Amino acid sequence: MSYPDADALVVGGGLAGCTVATELARAGRRAVLLERSKAAHHKVCGEFLSGEAIHYLSRLNVDLAALGAVALRSVRLVLRSGVVEEKLPFAAYSLTRSLLDEELLRGAAVAGVDVQRNTNVETLKAENAAWWVSDRDDRTFRSKDVFLATGKYDLRGFPRPAGTHRGLVAFKMYYRLTPQQHAELGDAIELILFPGGYAGLQPVEGGRVNLCLLVTGGCLKAAGSKWAGVLPYLERNSSYLTKRLNGATPLLESPLTASRIPYGHMQASSSEGLWHVGDQAAVIPSFCGDGMAIALHSGAMAAHHFLKGDGAAVYQARLRSQLGRRLAIATRLSQVMVAWPGAAQVVKMAPGLLSFIASMTRIPDTALLR
């Protein structure tokens, strides 16, 4: 079964995909969005919304307060030698992806996007000056322009390079902390360093907390290659996190996991009519907390250049010029934190260093679309 030609096909209905599809539909273009999920679901994501992310969500008419987003006001860097805390230099929130993504998909449909749920794309090929997309149900879609927004997962035949910070495995679990520990966490995001990785802990809506952590493959192997072994490893290497989780109730049957994440990847070029957005365009290390903002920014930038009549290569080069250096800095810092967590003690001797690092690893304010 073939669908009518679209002005643009968007493969993936996450932050980047919904952004580009909505912007195109608002401009009167026929955008078809292909999303594999049937309904709301969790994703491996820290769920930190920086000031840049808030800016783009406002453009999309997302009311964070109405959705129950939790305001975050400070960041704590937890070292073996102590804790360093600073106020965040921008407004920030947290909101679960299962809730946010559904709101963005709803908004896209309201804007006029043809949202196709439960669509598992199997092939993407260029033929006769157009891109052809086929799904598992033998449906065919065609357009001159395709926006690849599949997040952490690569479409068959379109793999990303391995990235420059390799060998990390991500875990995510929701918890309900004890009242005392939840109160002590407060409105902060905690970045907890330990040998072989780091973890982020922050409150989300509904009185829950999101624990996301990265460990090296070597550490995971030493822990028995299972989540049940990871927790004892953390207990041995982070008394702070052990205290936080003491008496906590896990809220998922098992953690979400992701591996072979190409941290440090920055898309260098693009084929004619193929636009890489979100994690398909750039993958920044998790500690920065700007991954969601980059996804939104890349989607908005791609739509902006498309509507100007620019090609995908122009967009890709512009995005690289905005983010390339910052992504490289963030990736190097992540490598250092994992390999030599003790090196982070320098922040204890340099007040304001956390804020400076944040400014050097985020989307520059001058790059944001207004």
UniProtKB/TrEMBL annotation:
Single GO term (MF): FAD binding
One Pfam family per UniProt: FAD_binding_3
InterPro entries xref list: FAD-bd (IPR002938), FAD/NAD-bd_sf (IPR036188), Geranylgeranyl_reductase (IPR050407)
Gene3D superfamilies (UniProt xref): FAD/NAD(P)-binding domain
Annotated transmembrane regions: none
SUPFAM superfamilies reported for this sequence: FAD/NAD(P)-binding domain (SSF51905)
Domain FAD-binding, chain residue ranges per copy: 6-128
Domain of life, per lineage: Bacteria
Protein name: Flavin-dependent dehydrogenase
Organism: Terriglobus roseus (strain DSM 18391 / NRRL B-41598 / KBS 63)
